[in-house]
Amino acid sequence: MVVAGLRLVNFRSCCDARVRFGPGLNVVVGDNATGKTNLLEAAWFALRGGSPRTRRDEKLITWGERYARVELELETTDGGMQRVEVGFAPREGKRVRWDGVEVASMEDLRSRSHVFIFVPESLLLVKGSPARRRAHLDAFGAALDPQYAAAVRDLQLVVRQRNAQLAAVKQGAAPGALDPWDAQFARVATELGRRRRDLVAALSEGFSETAAALAPAGGRYALQLVAQLDGVRYDEALLLEELRVRQPSEVRRGLSLFGPQRDDLKFLEVGPDGERAGGETGGARRGGATETACGPAALPSGGRDLRLFGSQGEQRAAVLALLLAEQRLAAARTGRQGPLFLDDVMSELDDPRRRRLVRMLATAGQAVVTTTDRHYFTEEELTRATVVELPLAGSLTPGEIASPAGDGTSPAPPGLDAL
């Protein structure tokens, strides 16, 4: 699948701008504030129905305008073309059409294609909360497998209902009223827990290979799912026993405190032979830290957690490695290689790692990479790539407020909705 064309109407800094992309590597070059990230965000918005940068769709609308619209052309593996249109207006909501037919839901839209994006906010996958990491894993798993999506929905529903019953017991309801909710929770929790565990296991090899290639010489990295259900071996009966033991503390809090809704994903550096960095083989232990020639390294016992101890460059490389592993897994399972949208990924890589990343992208289908400096790429790489120079016609300059640029096809008036 290739994103062949993109049109942005009243989207961020674009009044009415168009761009064409090619297969393989695309390099978008422009100064800061010329709209590089906006292009990637708009493509993601068209294929996912939301922004990777904000949950407030109204922020996507050009200042002073009443709606935003994105039109996207997809070239399929058989050479056919598909057209996706997404429009949003604050009082009309969001509407999506795929080849002219209304898309029933965002879940339906997201199941039709696989697409992967890195923007500055993507670093929160490493630096942010466990909830963000769970949401990312579950969104990928749900787009890959309808049964995974159903397991996510079931857990969310049962946790809400069980929490309400825990609060009721706290207020004086009979504790036995929790029994049916415990049984439902144990069933759906073990289902999602196993699927999430298997998904991380399937991603791990690709992640480790890519992260090692992007790391300094000798660096080795791993994904680790931190799951409470490991302690009950993902067994429904054992989970029910654990819930009975924990019932008094959960009633006091009015919250479900044990289960996959508490999972986390760790990005770890591991030792040269695969053991966790900072483990017993790494040096004498004292107070949980590893003694080195330079003093205590303060590494966690499971390895060097990049959320706590990684540099910005290492965290960036870890997110890139995860996205490439996801793309590889999705292609293996669906037979379709989704595009990669990578915003300013070259700036914190040294030259050898830039060259390795470009070689990886050469086998990754379509990749759209933005940069402020074309010299991050060799002349040979640029010759083989599609190069897009910014700003585009129909874009605002920083601080400018203007009417949409005319190009013979005016944007639809808001009265006809954003589409």
Structural class: alpha+beta
Q: Please indicate the count of domains.
A: 2
Strand content: 15-25%
In CATH, the architecture of the largest domain is 3-Layer(aba) Sandwich
Main sheet attributes: strand count, strand direction, barrel closure: 6 strands, antiparallel
* SSE sequence, one letter per element: EEEHEEEEHEHHHHEHEEEEEHHEHEHE
Q: What's the total helix number?
A: 11
Please name the fourth-level CATH homologous superfamily of the largest domain: P-loop containing nucleotide triphosphate hydrolases
Range of helix content: 25-40%
Mean pLDDT: 88
Q: Give the distance, in angstroms, between the N- and C-terminal Cα atoms.
A: 24 Å
Strand order of the largest sheet: 2-1-4-5-6-7
Poorly predicted sequence stretches spanning 5 or more consecutive residues: 276-300, 402-416
Work out the number of β strands: 17
Oligomer: single chain
* Alpha carbon gyration radius: 24 Å
Write the layout of secondary structure elements.
Elements: E1 2-11, E2 14-20, E3 25-29, H1 36-48, E4 68-75, E5 81-89, E6 93-98, E7 101-102, H2 106-110, E8 116-118, H3 124-127, H4 130-144, H5 146-170, H6 179-214, E9 220-226, H7 236-253, E10 264-270, E11 285-286, E12 289-292, E13 295-296, E14 304-305, H8 306-309, H9 312-334, E15 340-343, H10 351-361, E16 367-371, H11 379-384, E17 386-389
Parallel strand pairs: 3-16, 3-17, 8-15, 15-16
Antiparallel strand pairs: 1-2, 1-4, 4-5, 5-6, 6-7, 9-10, 10-14, 11-12, 12-13
Helix pairs in contact: 4-5, 5-6, 5-7, 6-7, 6-9
